[in-house]
């Protein structure tokens, strides 16, 4: 959708508001390709776990986890979740660290990352 600064726009407002099916499919594909970074409180204590889900299947998540463990000095693992697929778990609140690291390593674009 383009926004024109031309004040002589003869299109009706409803025509400009309707969206193109290609744009809708682009938005849907971006939503599916989002990488979600969440923090969860462990049930047994005050400690937290950072979870990363939605990374592309072409990446080796075990190598990514190993690099994150080394970079952030924390423990981590990859687990298989029935609904979410492969999920990376890291000890502590590493949301901002993971976001910056994924961008720095060019694994994700900033608009693909969703922090919760």
UniProtKB/TrEMBL annotation:
Family per record: Belongs to the SUI1 family.
SUPFAM superfamilies: eIF1-like
InterPro entries assigned: SUI1, SUI1_dom_sf, SUI1_euk
Protein name per UniProt: Eukaryotic translation initiation factor eIF1-like
Compositionally biased intervals (Polar residues): 1-17
Keyword line: Protein biosynthesis
GO molecular function terms attached to this record: translation initiation factor activity
Residue ranges of the region described as Disordered: 1-25
